[in-house]
């Protein structure tokens, strides 16, 4: 009996020991809770563990192939929409007001192409399911597991929240998900705003109102730090979503002002003005507005009745509380009928819906200021179409009080000159102007994505904000408000548009602390210097104070005053032993002491060389030389400065200072180091890269017939070749000729290509040419709308254009010829700009795409000038055409 007893004890003990590592799902969750995790989805029980498909038709299966660790992971397939994917409720497991870290591991199935997958949260505030907060995004491949990780706070105002994963760029991609863990983040010090810094509204009190958009969730705690920041810095508010049609009247006659009332009350309680956004818009307007119960478009009469009732109800509720309204929003499309967007509004009621909207709004509140609001109004074509619409409305007596410029901009686009021209255009209309939705993306394209905000980009953004504010101040007599589209980087739409990624577009960071961008608008001396960057083209200049053709190969570099106005500009060239400078100074008040000083550093430890050149002087010896000459706007200095050992790719530290004398007292204007420390430190000198420079060709005047044949007109045009390699080795090349007249640029390209292929579904991988044109020679790192374009024609004559709205400018004919193919094309000059003239320079490039084997892949790319591979979005590397 004793022996049997101990054997039973041994067996029981052994069983317990064997079972210890084999934790059940419940035990796993319990252990996760012990580690602080509120959710740990490892899918080890062979189920989806509460995850479900957002679209309802996705297949979510726990499989071994999807395991990042353990035995199982979750396979997601059967997606048919980009927003389809796995989702899990957060509300039951998260504590409101607490910050959590959400992490997950993802991978593509074997053999699947890489795709971007984002982690986001769908939130419901006061019963409204229209808030989607992007947390993070990464490109996921089949080669390795990738972790997505981000912090999230379940705000007090949220009714519900759910985390989800989607592949926004692919409607059908399958992917694996495993080890999703949600843990409370370490408790941090409560967020506290900086109460001792200047208030933006006070800094600009004599100029215009400073406003912010917000969502009602930001003021859930009316005494919290978000509310405090709004109260301290802003004297005008606007609702980001709460006054749009889908929020106020989601179903016909069923109005809901719950959220809007909270925001308006907050503004009034804190002495702020309120701006209503928006009454009539093509987006976020429910489908019932345009359709009857059978799905047919309603009549114009019914649509206008619905519009009037909506405006009467919404404006009537806030009469005397909201003093400014965006009556119609984003109605302009330069390529549309009469310059208007071909929306359902327009399709049903034509331009009349705009007229009636203003009439109804004025009747609903005669004291309210009524605005028309749009984006990209700095683009010449869109600007002019909007101007023309307002003129038409004014001619009919329609009560338009102002124009709103949204100003969703970036650190590279648009230019301050374009914004200046925008405000100037509307100055004669006798109406107010406002900046209504200002934010500044830190990206210059739709593909870059950073996990953190680089210091140099923070500084760049700050100076860009300063430069834009200087333009606004120039028009302070017309601009009544500057409104930011959000108060802080934690509350911005740009984390989900145009793609899911981090972005930092506003003046305060996610902890509500002032960024460099804020200080640039309040006290720029607190912003670190941003050393300028420039390029010098290889070449040699004759020192005679004249601008020879060779100088056009170098980009014009502006020198600006602190207020943003231009004091002058310069260009740089180089050879093995010298740097050449051509400086044009805007200064008509002649003083012989006025001067240009150039500083050049040959190394970190070397004392910089400095060369001061007076407007009335000259120098010519074996070491260095300069000449000066009077110009219509001031004076010009051309100089040769000794710099040894120059070679392609070298980076020089250079600065330039303009001295403007009044009597014996100079005012200094600095190109790069604005502290004036050029003699003691080279740290903030500009960085100048020595490059080969663009190629130059001539476009002769003439008007060929676009028929694919080489008529005699082309005989006077000189040919050049696409001889620079971008992709692959060797490949097809083109002999290119160009011509021009007052209406168009003409291109004739004869491509040597023995094997022609268009087997790829991607136009850029088919045998084709791509023509790049920068008519205003802006040399920008982005495409200036209405000006720059990419025009692709394959050997079969199929066209594709970027941007797509520029397609009407292209006319082309393709012909297969012995040994290859010929493309003859014309591209209209941009609308709304001065006609080209003899002697004018145009940015131009042309490349040849070649699928050499017919496998649907582009094997080689040859181009005339720009070898960066960025010609489709960056005009800075184009070659030059001179119109002759």
From TrEMBL:
It is an enzyme of class 3 (hydrolase). Residues 194-524 form the GH10 domain. Its EC number is 3.2.1.8. Pathway: Glycan degradation; xylan degradation. InterPro entries: Carb-bd_dom_fam9, CenC_carb-bd, Galactose-bd-like_sf, GH, GH10, GH10_dom. Keywords: Carbohydrate metabolism, Glycosidase, Hydrolase, Polysaccharide degradation, Repeat, Xylan degradation. The keyword Repeat applies. GO terms for molecular function: endo-1,4-beta-xylanase activity. This is Beta-xylanase.
């Amino acid at each position: 009996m004793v022996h049997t007893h101990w054997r039973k004890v041994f067996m029981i003990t052994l069983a317990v020991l064997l079972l210890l590592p084999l934790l059940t799902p419940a035990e796993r969750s319990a252990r996760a809770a012990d580690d602080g995790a509120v959710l740990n989805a490892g899918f080890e029980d062979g189920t989806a563990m509460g995850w479900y498909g957002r679209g309802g038709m996705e297949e979510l299966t726990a499989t071994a192939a999807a395991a990042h660790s353990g035995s199982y992971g979750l396979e997601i397939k059967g997606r048919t929409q980009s927003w389809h994917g796995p989702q899990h409720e957060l509300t039951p497991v998260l504590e409101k007001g607490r910050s959590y870290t959400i992490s997950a591991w993802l991978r593509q199935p074997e053999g699947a192409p890489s795709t971007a997958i984002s982690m986001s949260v769908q939130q419901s505030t006061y019963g409204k399911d229209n808030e989607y907060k992007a947390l993070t995004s990464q490109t996921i491949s089949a080669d390795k597991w990738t972790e997505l990780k981000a912090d999230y706070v379940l705000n007090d105002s949220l009714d519900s929240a759910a985390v989800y994963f989607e592949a926004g760029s692919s409607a059908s991609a399958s992917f694996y998900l495993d080890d999703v863990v949600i843990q409370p983040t370490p408790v941090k010090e409560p967020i506290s705003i900086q109460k001792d810094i200047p208030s933006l509204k006070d800094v600009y009190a004599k100029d215009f109102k400073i406003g912010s958009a917000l969502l009602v969730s930001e003021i859930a705690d009316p005494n919290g730090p978000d509310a405090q920041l709004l109260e301290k810095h802003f004297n005008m508010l606007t609702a980001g979503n709460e006054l749009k049609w889908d929020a106020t009247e989601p179903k016909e006659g069923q109005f809901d002002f719950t959220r809007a009332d909270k925001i308006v009350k907050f503004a009034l309680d804190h002495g702020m003005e309120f701006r209503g956004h928006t009454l009539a818009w093509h987006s976020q307007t429910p489908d019932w507005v345009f359709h009857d119960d059978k799905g047919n478009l309603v009549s114009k009469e019914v649509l206008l009745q619905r519009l009037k009732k909506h405006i009467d109800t919404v404006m009537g509720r806030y009469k005397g509380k909201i003093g400014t309204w965006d009556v119609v929003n984003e109605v302009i499309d330069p390529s549309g009928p009469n310059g208007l967007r071909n929306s359902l509004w327009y399709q049903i009621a034509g331009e009349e819906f705009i007229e009636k909207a203003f009439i109804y709004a004025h009747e609903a509140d005669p004291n309210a200021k009524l605005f028309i609001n749009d984006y990209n109004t700095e683009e010449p074509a869109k600007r002019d179409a909007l101007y023309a619409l307002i003129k038409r409305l004014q001619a009919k007596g329609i009560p338009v009080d102002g124009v709103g410029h949204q100003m969703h901009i970036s650190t590279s686009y648009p230019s301050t000159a374009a914004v200046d021209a925008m405000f100037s255009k509307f100055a004669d209309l006798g109406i107010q102007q406002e900046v209504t939705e200002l934010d500044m993306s830190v990206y210059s394209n739709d593909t870059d994505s950073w996990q953190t905000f680089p210091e140099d980009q923070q500084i760049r953004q700050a100076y860009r904000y300063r430069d834009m504010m200087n333009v606004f101040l120039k028009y302070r007599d017309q601009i009544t408000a500057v409104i930011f589209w959000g108060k802080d980087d934690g509350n911005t739409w740009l984390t989900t548009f145009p793609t899911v990624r981090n972005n930092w577009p506003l003046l305060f960071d996610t902890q509500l602390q002032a960024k460099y961008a804020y200080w640039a608008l309040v006290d720029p001396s607190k912003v670190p210097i941003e050393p300028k960057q420039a390029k010098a083209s290889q070449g040699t200049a004759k020192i005679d104070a004249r601008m020879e053709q060779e100088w056009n190969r170098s980009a014009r570099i502006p020198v600006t005053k602190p207020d943003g106005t231009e004091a002058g500009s310069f260009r740089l060239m180089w050879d093995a032993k010298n740097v050449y400078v051509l400086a044009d100074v805007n200064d008509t008040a002649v003083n012989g002491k006025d001067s240009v000083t150039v500083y050049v550093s040959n190394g970190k430890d070397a004392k910089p060389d400095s060369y001061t050149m007076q407007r009335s002087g000259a120098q010519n010896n074996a070491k260095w030389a300069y000449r000066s000459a009077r110009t219509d706007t001031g004076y010009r200095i051309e100089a040769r400065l000794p710099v040894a050992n120059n070679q392609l790719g070298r980076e020089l530290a250079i600065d330039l200072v303009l001295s403007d004398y009044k009597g014996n007292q100079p005012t200094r204007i600095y190109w790069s180091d604005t502290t004036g420390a050029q003699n003691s430190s080279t740290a903030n000198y500009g960085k100048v890269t020595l490059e080969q420079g663009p190629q130059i060709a001539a476009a002769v005047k003439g008007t060929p017939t676009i028929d694919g044949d080489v008529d005699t007109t082309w005989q006077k045009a000189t040919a050049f070749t696409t001889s620079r390699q971008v992709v692959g080795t060797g490949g097809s090349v083109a002999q290119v000729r160009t011509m021009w007249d007052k209406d168009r640029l003409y291109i004739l390209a004869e491509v040597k290509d023995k094997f022609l292929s268009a087997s790829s579904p991607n136009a850029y991988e088919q045998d084709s040419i791509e023509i790049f044109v920068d008519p205003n020679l802006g040399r920008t790192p982005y495409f200036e709308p209405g000006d720059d374009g990419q025009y692709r024609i394959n050997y079969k004559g199929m066209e594709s254009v970027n941007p797509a709205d520029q397609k009407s400018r292209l006319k082309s004919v393709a012909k297969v010829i012995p040994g290859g193919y010929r493309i003859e094309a014309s591209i209209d000059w941009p609308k709304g700009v001065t006609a080209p003239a003899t002697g004018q320079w145009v940015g131009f490039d042309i490349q040849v795409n070649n699928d050499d084997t017919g496998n649907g892949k582009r094997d080689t790319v040859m181009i005339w000038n720009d070898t960066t591979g960025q010609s489709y979005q960056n005009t800075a590397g184009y070659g030059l055409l001179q119109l002759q």
